From TrEMBL:
Signal sequence residues: none
InterPro entries registered for this protein in UniProt: Anti-sigma_ant, STAS_dom, STAS_dom_sf
The protein's name in its UniProt record: Anti-sigma factor antagonist
Family to which the UniProt record says this protein belongs: Belongs to the anti-sigma-factor antagonist family.
Record-linked Gene3D superfamilies: STAS domain
Organism: Streptomyces griseoloalbus
Domain STAS: 17-118
CDD domains: STAS_anti-anti-sigma_factors
Pfam family name, one: STAS
Superkingdom assignment: Bacteria
Length: 130
């Protein structure tokens, strides 16, 4: 009989029109990664370009969770957009550091800090003026 696990909870808020803040709670692993991916895909579909991933309530993340973060990072870069990890728990931070994900995807201590990083990103080039 499998061990029951707390389901993943993902709350999506929109601090700005093109920014989605996803507050994740629970284990982000092979059993819950698909649900997380659906939330991200839905926000991409609705035109969000910047993704703030609050992982402060994620006690464990395996390679499935990391792969989804890296996948949305690649998709967001093509828009152009960005992905920011917010306040990961020590266990998750260790995994991000050991795998090098924290070198690729910026880690912030708060949503405000992540939004400041979004503001510092270069804007997408506009159409040239005649």
């Amino acid at each position: 009989m499998p061990i029951a696990q707390d389901p993943l909870s993902v709350e999506v808020t929109l601090p700005r029109e093109d920014v989605a803040l996803l507050t994740v709670e629970g284990y982000l692993d092979v059993d819950t990664a698909t649900e997380f991916q659906h939330h991200l895909a839905n926000q991409l579909h609705h035109g969000r370009r910047h993704f703030l991933l609050d992982l402060s309530a994620v006690p464990f993340m395996d390679s499935s969770g990391m792969n989804i973060i890296l996948r949305v990072y690649q998709e967001a870069r093509e828009l152009p957009g960005s992905v920011h990890i917010i306040s990961p728990t020590p266990a998750v931070r260790r995994i991000l550091d050991l795998t090098g994900v924290s070198i690729t995807v910026p880690v912030s201590e708060s949503a405000d800090e992540a939004l400041e990083r979004v503001d510092r990103l270069p804007e997408a080039p506009d159409e040239p003026e005649a």
